[in-house]
Specification:
Number of domains: 1
Helix content: 25-40%
Order of helices and strands: EEEHEHEHEEEEH
Structural class: alpha+beta
CATH superfamily: Glutaredoxin
Shape: globular
Oligomer: single chain
Largest sheet: 7 strands, mixed
CATH architecture: 3-Layer(aba) Sandwich
């Protein structure tokens, strides 16, 4: 498994989204790009997580942070999530591949049938992760998980971004 290190270049990332194609190399944020990987339509925790992110999207934008969300869902499942979860302020990507997941050091899981909300899990899907990326496309901060539970709260991430910008705080965890 690859472990991305802060201060190192991110992989060349290009994704399909419901709005347009998205490329990390084309991002020109004032401060950061925040890549949020979610499990998919089947995940009730992802619904509440992305709903919270949608609510705070303008707060991130005001701090110079571009947001991109993605899952390994199909276009149809991503569109359903976008519509049913009411996420108009988010750019929703889809089709995160096994290779892309591996390049990001993310964990993958095998589907187990219907979830608690009655939606079938895909045969395979990627577990959640967050990547905060500097404008030069180097990793600043990341958090990956093997479970849908206990993710960083977006309000706390906003506070951390405020601190990092105000104090010009360096990326940490860079040692091999």
């Amino acid at each position: 498994m690859i472990v991305l290190k802060p201060r190192q270049a991110m992989p060349a990332l290009q994704f399909h989204s419901l709005q347009d194609n998205w490329s990390l190399a084309e991002q020109k944020p004032a401060q950061f790009t925040m890549l949020v990987v979610y499990r998919g339509l089947h995940c009730p925790i992802c619904k509440s997580y992305l709903t919270e992110l949608n609510r705070l999207a303008e707060d991130f934008s005001a701090r110079g942070v571009n947001i991109f969300t993605i899952s390994s869902d199909t276009h149809e499942r991503a569109q359903t999530a976008f519509d049913e979860w009411k996420l108009p302020k988010l750019t929703l990507g889809y089709g995160l591949s096994v290779e892309q997941s591996q390049a990001l050091g993310l964990h993958r899981s095998k589907g187990r049938g219907l979830t608690s909300i009655g939606i079938e899990e895909p045969e395979e899907f990627t577990e959640p992760g967050i990547f905060i990326i500097r404008p030069d496309n180097t990793l600043y901060w990341s958090n990956i998980s093997t479970m849908p539970f206990a993710r960083p709260h977006f309000k706390e991430i906003l506070g951390a971004i405020d601190f990092a910008i105000q104090k010009d705080y360096p990326a940490r965890g860079e040692l091999v």
